[in-house]
């Protein structure tokens, strides 16, 4: 696989085709600094064409996922004026775009604070698992600012009506409510149950062919914005190529021979 970049704000661990990324600024509840944003983007870029990594698990150190943007970074940008604020904010939006479109399955494990930028990261995951006691919220307006880069992703995740309520009240809520809203897929009682659910989800992901998963994810994301006819034309071409491709042939043979395909045995 491609070499991973050196990181100061992230812990990286590769295990059986799964890259575990841990946000590692526990003293600030893993607040999203510009350095962390830059490092996350570099890690995702290094994986862009590497399907040896089947899934990415994103979580936080010290019992919290991410408490939002780093106020110290914002204070530092004040001296440089509006352009610095704009660049700082847009860099996080670029991270969200890149995380959403990464070809690997992106799994967010959410504990403790899941606020602001952390909330945004949860919204771009393919699968989200939380602890029931996690605290979710969009606190930006209580600071006199906007959830500027996060808002479009939250709307896509849970709908405009609920996003308006949460963004305009800064209401906090727990994992059970996050599951009801569709923000997360699983809300578990404790950390042991969270880890058990993560193990189950990763086992399921490993049953799926890497290239087929990557193309399926891209197709699903495209379905939100592309015209239906051209999208279906392109999907038919991809389907034909997949059936006669390496994964399609292996999957068909494995089914006929009543065995696991090679990617499930790796």
TrEMBL record:
GO terms for molecular function: catalytic activity. One of its GO terms (biological process) is isoprenoid catabolic process. SUPFAM superfamilies: ClpP/crotonase. InterPro entries: ClpP/crotonase-like_dom_sf (IPR029045), Enoyl-CoA_hydra/iso (IPR001753), Enoyl-CoA_hydra_C (IPR014748), Enoyl-CoA_Hydratase/Isomerase (IPR051683). Gene3D superfamilies: 2-enoyl-CoA Hydratase, Chain A, domain 1, Lyase 2-enoyl-coa Hydratase, Chain A, domain 2. It holds the Pfam family ECH_1. PANTHER family: ENOYL-COA HYDRATASE (PTHR42964), POLYKETIDE BIOSYNTHESIS ENOYL-COA HYDRATASE PKSH-RELATED (PTHR42964:SF1). Belongs to the enoyl-CoA hydratase/isomerase family. This is Isohexenylglutaconyl-CoA hydratase. The lineage of its organism: Bacteria, Pseudomonadati, Pseudomonadota, Gammaproteobacteria, Pseudomonadales.
